[in-house]
TrEMBL record:
<keyword id="KW-0479">Metal-binding</keyword>
<dbReference type="GO" id="GO:0016836">
    <property type="term" value="F:hydro-lyase activity"/>
</dbReference>
<dbReference type="GO" id="GO:0051536">
    <property type="term" value="F:iron-sulfur cluster binding"/>
</dbReference>
<dbReference type="Pfam" id="PF24877">
    <property type="entry name" value="ILV_EDD_C"/>
</dbReference>
<protein>
    <submittedName>
        <fullName>Dihydroxy-acid dehydratase</fullName>
    </submittedName>
</protein>
<keyword id="KW-0411">Iron-sulfur</keyword>
<dbReference type="InterPro" id="IPR000581">
    <property type="entry name" value="ILV_EDD_N"/>
</dbReference>
<dbReference type="InterPro" id="IPR056740">
    <property type="entry name" value="ILV_EDD_C"/>
</dbReference>
<dbReference type="InterPro" id="IPR042096">
    <property type="entry name" value="Dihydro-acid_dehy_C"/>
</dbReference>
<dbReference type="GO" id="GO:0046872">
    <property type="term" value="F:metal ion binding"/>
</dbReference>
<feature type="domain" description="Dihydroxy-acid/6-phosphogluconate dehydratase C-terminal">
    <location>
        <begin position="370"/>
        <end position="576"/>
    </location>
</feature>
<feature type="domain" description="Dihydroxy-acid/6-phosphogluconate dehydratase N-terminal">
    <location>
        <begin position="45"/>
        <end position="359"/>
    </location>
</feature>
<dbReference type="InterPro" id="IPR020558">
    <property type="entry name" value="DiOHA_6PGluconate_deHydtase_CS"/>
</dbReference>
<comment type="similarity">
    <text>Belongs to the IlvD/Edd family.</text>
</comment>
<dbReference type="InterPro" id="IPR037237">
    <property type="entry name" value="IlvD/EDD_N"/>
</dbReference>
<dbReference type="InterPro" id="IPR052352">
    <property type="entry name" value="Sugar_Degrad_Dehydratases"/>
</dbReference>
<keyword id="KW-0408">Iron</keyword>
Length: 591
């Protein structure tokens, strides 16, 4: 540990600047007015921020309001002073038109707070989908000592003796409602059963994914991701997180020391092993860009594709968050990967000052039904494919959720076992899809591919989670529950659909999807990782010229000032959907 020299603290420039007593007095007096003393603020103790993402607007993270009390006690006990402040709330299931719009807004706000106030280190209260990347991205840009604290998943949902997973059960319940198996009240009860307590989604959706990856990146204390929100261990690790951040300030252990290229490579492997969300590449690529670490979707395929799925959680498997924790959580997953020598960089540093390997090497897998050994996985090659072609430069496919039904129908040609071809049905966004999916004139059958466009970061501001589309009701009644879905939007991490999504560039940014017409033949080859409209280059160029002459791909009006501002400066999904000008700002606390 380096010497505890208070003169190194950046908060000294506000609260104890011998060269400028006038400004020091101004900075300090207002923080006394609720009871802090001048002696405390000038005692040379680090000022630790708690970046509070919980509020009544964001129920997934609301329990952080309680947990912050234990964080404070840890900070005080370790010799720090705590300033808790709000982060722009992001509730995945509450924000219109989409919570994804707010990730970069929360990022921008948090960067300003961490840079502009006397904060020496920060506890990032992560949880609901976008809160985790927003916090990590801001910590990356500012680069002051930072540690993440997950709010933890909800308790398991139960309905009539069966586990009901948040987010995931909605898809099944909608199908049951559509098929007339349940009524409206039954539908509501079934969906609500999946959310029995405070915390974030108890499935392996984007929240559990991103919280697990924050731990795999080294940004949380070991075991911090999986502890359910209401368990005593959750409040205990909140306290330990408060203790630890104070030492991290004295050690000057910064996000750039932890979130290295090696850490991201570890996280990609862990993402495959847990069956992580297709939102993970967007968010991790974004965090990496703000750190200046090179990372792209080719890395995700190269490092992650061959890794087996070993966590048996919904939507790919059976279990939920409590089971994941009881089995040992992220350390047990990494322990299994290490036994099989599949963790690429065990030496990567974590926030507790030890390496990821040292933290996880002896972690016990306490329930092999939930966390399988690598030798007995749920799915063998469970990572993402990165598809390319004349439709887009990059689109992600999560192969681990491809159902047997889907494989049998679309991938069963013995001459060509990895490819499928079909007639394109093109929808202009989710409203158009809902409007026309049951239109008999489209003649949708099981040889069609459903496309949705205008749903990327620009087309549907922030990008919509809409690519996983249900087949028409007539096909569902015939037992066809999944069709190939392709689009420039995202899909919920809680969906089990084998979609091809996050297509970049999106139609609204000049991507080939804009040129597709209903009736075109499209060929997807999963071995070659290609996706192409089967028309000539000349025809494509002619369509491109026609689209340009017609004024380009139409996007809906901006509804808020932020939608307009963000659309002007946002990058594509494969580039992390970051605000392009923000990437140039690195390590700004040092400036
Ligand atoms: Fe918040 Fe799923 S909706 S974590
Ligand atoms: Mg989501």
């Amino acid at each position: 540990m380096t010497a505890r020299d208070p003169n190194r603290l950046r908060s000294r420039a506000w609260f104890d600047n011998p060269d400028d007593p006038g400004m020091t007095a101004l900075y300090i007096e207002r923080y006394l007015n609720y009871g802090l003393t001048r002696e405390e603020l000038q005692s040379g103790k680090p000022i630790i921020g708690i970046a509070q993402t919980g509020s009544d607007l964001s129920p997934c993270n609301r329990h952080h309001i309680e947990l912050a009390k234990r964080v404070r006690e840890g900070i005080r006990e370790a010799g720090g002073i705590c300033f808790e402040f709000p982060v722009h709330p992001i509730q995945e299931t509450g924000k219109r038109p989409t919570a994804s719009l707010d990730r970069n807004l929360a990022y921008l706000g948090l960067v300003e707070l961490l840079y502009g106030y006397p904060i020496d280190g920060v506890v990032l209260t992560i949880g609901c989908d976008k809160t985790t990347p927003a916090c990590l991205m801001a910590a990356a840009t500012v680069n002051i000592p930072a540690i993440a604290l997950s709010v933890g998943p909800m308790l398991n949902g139960w309905h009539r003796g069966e586990r009901t997973g948040s987010g995931t059960i909605v898809w099944k319940a909608r199908e049951m409602l559509a098929a007339g198996e349940i009524d409206y009240a039954g539908f509501m009860d079934l969906v609500a059963s999946s959310a029995p307590s405070v915390g974030y989604c108890n499935t392996m959706g984007t929240a559990t994914t991103m919280n697990s990856l924050a731990e795999a990146l080294g940004m949380q204390l070991p075991g911090g991701a999986a502890i359910p929100a209401t368990y005593r261990e959750r409040a205990q690790i909140a306290y330990q997180t408060g203790l630890r951040i104070v030492d991290m300030v004295w050690e000057d252990l910064k996000p750039s020391d932890v979130m290295t290229r090696e850490a991201f490579e570890n996280a990609i492997v862990v993402n495959s092993a847990i069956g992580g969300s297709t939102n993970a590449p967007i968010h991790l690529n974004a965090v990496a860009r703000h750190l200046g670490v090179p990372l792209d979707n080719d890395d995700w395929q190269r490092l992650g594709q061959d890794v087996p799925l070993i966590v048996n959680m919904q939507p790919a498997g059976e279990y939920l968050g409590e089971d994941y924790h009881h089995a040992g959580g992220v350390p047990a997953v990494i322990g299994e990967l290490m036994k099989a020598e599949r963790l690429p960089h065990p030496q990567a540093l974590t926030v507790n000052g030890k390496s990821l390997g040292d933290n996880c090497r002896t972690a016990e897998n306490l329930d092999t039904r939930v966390i399988r050994p690598v030798s007995d996985p749920l799915v063998d090659k469970a990572g993402f494919l990165n598809l390319k072609g004349n439709l887009f430069d990059s689109a992600i496919m999560k192969t681990s959720v491809i159902s047997k039904e889907f494989r049998d129908r679309y991938l069963s040609n013995p001459d060509d076992p990895d490819a499928f071809e079909g007639r394109a049905i093109v929808f202009e966004g989710p409203e158009d899809y809902h409007h026309r999916i049951d239109d008999p004139e489209l003649e949708i059958d099981e040889n069609c591919l459903l496309f949705i466009r205008g749903t990327g970061p620009i087309g549907y501001p922030g990008g919509a989670e809409v690519v996983n589309m249900q087949p028409p009701a007539a096909l569902i009644k015939r037992g066809i529950h999944a069709m190939p879905c392709i689009g420039d939007g995202r899909q919920s991490g809680t969906s089990g659909s084998a979609s091809i999504l996050n297509a970049s560039p999106e139609a609204a940014a000049g991507g080939g999807l804009a040129l597709l017409k209903t009736g075109d033949r499209v060929r997807i080859d999963l071995r070659a990782c290609t996706a192409n409209i089967l028309i000539s280059d000349e025809e494509l160029e002619q369509r491109r010229a026609e689209l340009a002459a017609a004024g380009g791909f139409a996007i809906p009006d901006h509804q808020t000032p932020w939608q307009e501002i963000q659309r002007g400066i946002i990058d594509q999904f494969d580039k992390g959907m970051v605000l392009k000008p923000a990437v140039a700002y690195r390590d700004i606390a040092a400036s």
